[in-house]
């Protein structure tokens, strides 16, 4: 399967997941608004996701996939299966007691992670403890799913793992619709998180067996490959941990701000995560096994081409998204969320955060590509050092900016740190000869043309917003129609220029999507 086809597969299924995710968020905003129940649930959701992204989908995945790919290529299927069995055994050995202890000591954990909740009399704090105890086992199920997903992606079965998030959002929607059966909507969503984790693991396990692979429970043994996995995971764990600690620090700081700050950041980040998931996560998922395979085969020319085309596609798709989210943030938030318990004031506050996140969106996606290029060569140390530097900058900026622009300062600090990180990584990859990766002339030329198309699209967005301002201020249907017209015209301008400037070759795209290398 070609990189572009793998990317399109993951991106398309991620889009389906995001559509269901927005349905879930619209329901959540209407039912919970941006009040104490919403704040408590979003903390309960963030904690297991913190460890999932730091370990299972962070340090573990970027270390496991290249090793599994190399073992499969050089030693065959049976050796690769045995390595996966041992990796799963080690995962269970660590995660089962960790989850149990975390659930027992959850009040103490949240004293540290959401101190502002307890300072208000404990209502949000007590609810957050209860909800997080329900959601925390999600970490175990999704970690096992990530292991199976890494195997399937290496086998060119990208669609299966990409479908799993759809299950998460569908289950969440179902539990929201029956929220009246639970003490609060937050309880309903928390149980939905846990059940969705179980269903995702069942789906992944069945799919792996369907494709002729079967994992078995074995006694954990520190074999040479497992030791190598841990050595690679060490730096990756620190790096991924720094990123996730930044997110937790954002939550800690936001918890000290007035009620609603956590929710404003959550809803803004959900919109920011749409292109980040569709493009950044998809390109990282597709690129890591593909690039690892090229590097294992000593295909320097193929590695260089794949790296540049991946970076080119991320810029082509991410830059217009960032421009759009920044320029029409308030209409987007208003159309999606402003109803029920979600007020006009909530829309304005959330839009401020979205504009800040949008500023950093190209950097967030760029980091995915640049870090993946290093991970594919089993270099987990360089991204860690860069991440630690940028994480420190992010925390300092957060503390400085919240004084003047409250929760928006948290989002803006994250964006600035993202640009610093992508700049350092790009410079390192460009100057370090041993990596054999550089930015070719085609990518540099197309970047200039993409920026030109983005400028024209921005002018169209501004013109449409001014021309349709009255409709943006009218009822829900008028706002939706005005937003749809604005986005359609802007997309037409951008797409037309991209084609006329020959940034993309439609014939090549058709060949790649048909499966040609």
Describe this structure in words.
The protein has 517 residues and is mainly alpha-helical. Helix content is 85%, strand content 0%. The mean pLDDT is 80.
Keywords:
globular; 517 residues; mainly alpha
- The number of helices is 19
The chain-level structural class is mainly alpha
Q: How would you characterize the largest beta sheet?
A: none
Radius of gyration in whole Å, from Cα? 22 Å
Mean pLDDT: 80
Number of strands: 0
Strand-residue proportion? under 5%
Q: Spell the H/E element sequence.
A: HHHHHHHHHHHHHHHHHHH
Residue windows where pLDDT falls under 50 for at least 5 positions: none
Q: How far from one another are the termini?
A: 7 Å
> What is the 3D shape?
globular
Fraction of residues in H or I helices? over 70%
List the topology elements.
Layout: H1 3-32, H2 36-75, H3 77-104, H4 106-113, H5 115-118, H6 123-135, H7 138-154, H8 158-177, H9 185-210, H10 224-255, H11 261-296, H12 300-327, H13 329-337, H14 344-375, H15 381-431, H16 441-467, H17 469-472, H18 476-500, H19 506-513
């Amino acid at each position: 399967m070609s990189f572009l086809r793998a990317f399109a597969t993951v991106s398309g299924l991620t889009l389906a997941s995001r559509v269901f995710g927005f349905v879930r968020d619209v329901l959540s905003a209407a039912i919970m608004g941006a009040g104490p129940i919403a704040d408590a649930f979003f903390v309960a959701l963030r904690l297991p996701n913190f460890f999932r992204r730091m370990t299972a989908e962070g340090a573990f995945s970027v270390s496991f996939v290249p090793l599994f790919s190399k073992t499969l290529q050089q030693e065959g299927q049976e050796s690769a299966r045995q390595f996966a069995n041992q990796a799963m055994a080690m995962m269970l050995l660590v995660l089962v007691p960790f989850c149990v202890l975390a659930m027992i000591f959850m009040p103490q954990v949240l004293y540290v992670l959401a101190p502002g909740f307890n300072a208000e009399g404990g209502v949000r704090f007590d609810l957050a403890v209860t909800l997080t105890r329900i959601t925390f086992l999600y970490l175990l199920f999704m970690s096992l799913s990530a292991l199976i997903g890494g195997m399937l992606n290496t086998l060119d079965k990208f669609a299966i793992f990409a479908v799993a998030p759809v299950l998460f959002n569908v289950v969440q929607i179902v539990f929201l619709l029956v929220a009246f059966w639970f003490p609060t909507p937050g309880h309903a969503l928390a149980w939905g998180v846990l059940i969705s984790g179980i269903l995702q693991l069942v789906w992944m396990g069945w799919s792996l067996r369907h494709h002729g692979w079967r994992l078995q429970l074995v006694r954990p043994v520190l074999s040479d490959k497992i030791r190598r996995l841990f050595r690679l995971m060490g730096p990756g764990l620190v790096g991924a941990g720094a990123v996730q600690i930044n997110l937790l620090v954002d939550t800690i700081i936001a918890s000290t701000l007035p009620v609603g700050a956590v929710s404003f950041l959550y809803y803004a980040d959900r919109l920011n995560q749409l292109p980040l998931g569709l493009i950044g996560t998809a390109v990282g998922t597709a690129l890591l096994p593909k690039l690892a395979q090229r590097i294992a085969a000593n295909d320097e020319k193929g590695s260089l081409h794949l790296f540049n085309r991946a970076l080119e596609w991320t810029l082509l798709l991410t830059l217009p998204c960032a421009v759009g989210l920044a320029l029409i943030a308030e209409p987007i938030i208003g159309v999606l969320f402003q109803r029920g318990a979600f007020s006009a004031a909530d829309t304005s506050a959330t839009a401020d955060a979205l504009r800040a996140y949008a500023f950093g969106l190209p950097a967030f996606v760029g980091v995915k590509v640049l870090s993946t290029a290093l991970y594919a060569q089993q270099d987990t140390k360089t991204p860690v050092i860069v991440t630690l530097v940028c994480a420190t900058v992010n925390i300092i900026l957060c503390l400085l900016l919240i004084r003047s622009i409250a929760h928006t300062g948290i989002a803006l600090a994250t964006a600035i740190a993202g640009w610093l990180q992508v700049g350092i990584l790009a410079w390192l990859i460009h100057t370090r000869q041993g990596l054999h990766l550089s930015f070719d002339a085609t990518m540099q030329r197309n970047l200039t043309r993409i920026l030109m198309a983005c400028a024209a699209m921005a002018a169209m967005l501004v013109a449409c917003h001014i021309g349709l301002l009255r409709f943006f201020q009218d009822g829900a249907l008028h706002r939706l129609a005005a937003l749809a017209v604005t986005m359609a015209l802007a997309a037409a301008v951008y797409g037309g220029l991209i084609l006329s400037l020959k940034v993309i070759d439609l014939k090549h795209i058709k060949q790649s999507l048909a499966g040609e290398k």
